[in-house]
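Researcher: Please predict.
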Amino acid sequence: MRSKQIVVESKPTGVVLIVLALGCGTTPPPRDLYGDLSRTVVWSRLVSSPDEEEERVDEAIRLHLAGVGGDREAAERGLELLIELNAKRPDAPRIVAYLGSARVLAATRMLAPWSKGRTCNEGLRLLDEAVESAPEDVEVRFVRAVSTFPIPRFFGRARQCAADLEWVGKRCRAAVDAGDLSADIAASALFHLGLVRDRDGDSPGARAAWREAVAVAPRSEPARLAREKLGGAR
């Protein structure tokens, strides 16, 4: 088996995380938190025999990530393709996870509050289903963590997000070494973990996570942001 890299190009205008714009809730994180999607993000996974169907999955993820980077047309095309792929492979946790993430992202494009809430809840349900189906999959757990990181607290996901990031943080280095996860994703997970720990008053734990983010992918955008946090720590 070998590691396959998926390179995603997005608009040069920067990147936002999947922020649920419901008019209240948490402050949106910096635009360049989620790796350096404004230029290139590399996603890795372990594959044994790539085929046409897997290439379509990869394309759906490319489109979704471009949508996270601000390309609305790509986001809508990615959602359509993920829906189609999910209809054919409803038991594929990776597809289900990205579909859930795409649903949460779709909620940000809706105007009616009830539509936002309904669509976001559907996305969260799919993310939970994916993790339940593949509880040991680091990428699937990471997708749920970063998809729930910015949403308002009244959705009751703050503790789950923190637990997911702690779980991923303990396993991401091994996943990178095994070729199951890109170093950029690992660094992003560790940077987010540091933010959560810092928010919860665990300053030493936050600094430890940021140092590890720098170590795992020194040239990545999450590592740059982690260095800024470490430099500002007292």
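Model: Residues 1-49 have pLDDT under 50 and may be disordered.
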